[in-house]
């Protein structure tokens, strides 16, 4: 296995210094038979069969997993398609190290694993690719490790960084953003009814230093009658702050555009979103690529010269099956969209 790249990072726990990264298969390694989740980054990939099925007929070549995580999707894709090679990207150093181990049996079919945000896609990958996968949101290990500060269910420092080398944490957002900014963040994550009320209470309670403190402030801001339904009252607030800390929505749209540009004809872009903000961006970018940016009135022939880049592979978003949700409740909010690159007229890229 070629030693995966981690961009400009070389800290001890990165994939670059991982003991498995030796230029050869690990001792006793065999081709992976079935999904082998890393014990260091145990994450159950969502809608795995649907993702593999969507990539079953893409051209031979390179697939980019732009949100590698524990490499569950990547393993299944490489197993199903021996003619595909992989470039993986993830901003979490723990995920890259775990994926290095999980993917070791695939040898030089794993071209590189980069520790980077997926908006670096266009600079990390320069050749046409057969597929790009985005599995958005937070990984289970990130959510389940209390000290990382993603969860409202345990008390821990307000962190929420997917990349722990970045400076800004959730504490910075919670304690520095003004009331109007906090309210806008909450509205964007679906907390429309009580956004201003929650934002006001957060400002009044500063400084807030732990997840437990923040969860209690949010809970107290919501009327008791409302708290009895709809899940944990802090869920949307935590999601909003996490998205802001990691700039998740800011980088998603341009990254989808870059992925579509990289696709060879017949190549596919698949995206799994877990809340309305993510899904809306994916939907809009796929729709714009499918229309070529056409500005003509709906229902009339196009006369503006727009050139469609993709065709949509399903109407609306696909959802996980009831059986999958029963086995993995965290899959419930998943929404899958996919598009296929079409051949452009000569001279148009």
Give a verbal description of the structure.
The protein is of the alpha/beta class. It has 14 helices and seven strands. Strands 3-2-1-4-5-7-6 form a seven-stranded mixed sheet, with helices on both faces. Strand 1, helix 2 and strand 2 form a beta-alpha-beta unit. It is globular and about 55 Å long.
Terminal Cα separation, in Å? 34 Å
Task: Give me the number of helical elements.
Answer: 14
Poorly predicted sequence stretches spanning 5 or more consecutive residues:
1-35
Helix content: 25-40%
Instruction: Count the E strands.
Output: 7
Numbering strands along the chain, what is their spatial order in the largest sheet? 3-2-1-4-5-7-6
Gyration radius (Cα, Å) is: 21 Å
Order of helices and strands: HEHEHEHEHHHHHHHHEHEHE
In short:
The protein has 14 helices and seven strands. The protein has 349 residues and is an alpha/beta fold. It has a seven-stranded mixed sheet with strand order 3-2-1-4-5-7-6, with helices on both faces.
Write the layout of secondary structure elements.
Elements: H1 48-54, E1 61-65, H2 72-80, E2 84-90, H3 93-102, E3 110-115, H4 121-124, E4 129-135, H5 140-144, H6 170-176, H7 179-188, H8 195-205, H9 211-221, H10 224-227, H11 235-246, H12 248-262, E5 263-273, H13 276-291, E6 310-312, H14 322-327, E7 335-341
Parallel strand pairs: 1-2, 1-4, 2-3, 4-5
Antiparallel strand pairs: 5-7, 6-7
Helix pairs in contact: 7-8, 7-11, 8-9, 12-13
């Amino acid at each position: 296995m070629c030693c995966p790249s981690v961009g400009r990072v070389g800290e001890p726990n990165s994939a670059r210094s991982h003991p498995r990264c030796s230029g050869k298969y690990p001792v006793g390694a065999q081709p992976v038979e079935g999904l082998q989740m890393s014990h260091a980054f145990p994450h159950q990939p969502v809608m795995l069969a649907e993702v593999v099925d969507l990539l079953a007929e893409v051209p031979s070549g390179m697939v980019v997993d732009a949100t590698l995580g524990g490499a569950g999707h990547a393993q299944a894709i490489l197993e199903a398609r021996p003619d595909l090679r992989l470039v993986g990207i993830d901003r979490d150093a723990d995920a890259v190290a775990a994926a290095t181990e999980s993917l070791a049996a695939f040898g030089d079919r794993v071209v590189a694993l980069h520790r980077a945000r997926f908006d670096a896609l266009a600079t990390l990958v320069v050749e046409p690719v057969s597929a790009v996968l985005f599995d958005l949101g937070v990984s289970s290990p990130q959510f389940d490790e209390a000290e990382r500060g993603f969860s409202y269910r345990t008390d821990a420092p307000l962190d929420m960084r997917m990349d722990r080398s970045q400076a800004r944490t959730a504490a910075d957002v919670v304690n520095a953003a003004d009331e109007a900014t906090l309210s806008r963040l909450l509205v964007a994550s679906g907390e429309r009814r009580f956004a201003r009320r929650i934002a006001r209470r957060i400002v009044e309670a500063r400084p807030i230093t732990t997840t437990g403190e923040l969860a209690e402030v949010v809970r107290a801001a919501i009327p008791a009658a409302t708290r009895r339904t709809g899940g944990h009252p802090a869920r949307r607030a935590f999601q909003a702050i996490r998205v802001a800390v990691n700039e998740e929505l800011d980088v998603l749209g341009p990254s989808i555009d870059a992925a579509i540009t990289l696709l060879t004809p017949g190549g596919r872009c698949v995206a799994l979103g877990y809340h309305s903000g993510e899904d809306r961006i994916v939907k809009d970018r796929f729709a714009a690529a499918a229309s070529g940016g056409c500005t003509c009135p709906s229902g009339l022939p196009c006369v503006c010269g727009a050139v469609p880049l993709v065709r949509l592979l399903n109407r609306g978003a696909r959802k996980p099956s009831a059986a999958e949700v029963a086995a993995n409740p965290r899959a419930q909010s998943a929404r899958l969209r996919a598009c296929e690159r079409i051949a452009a007229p000569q001279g148009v890229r």
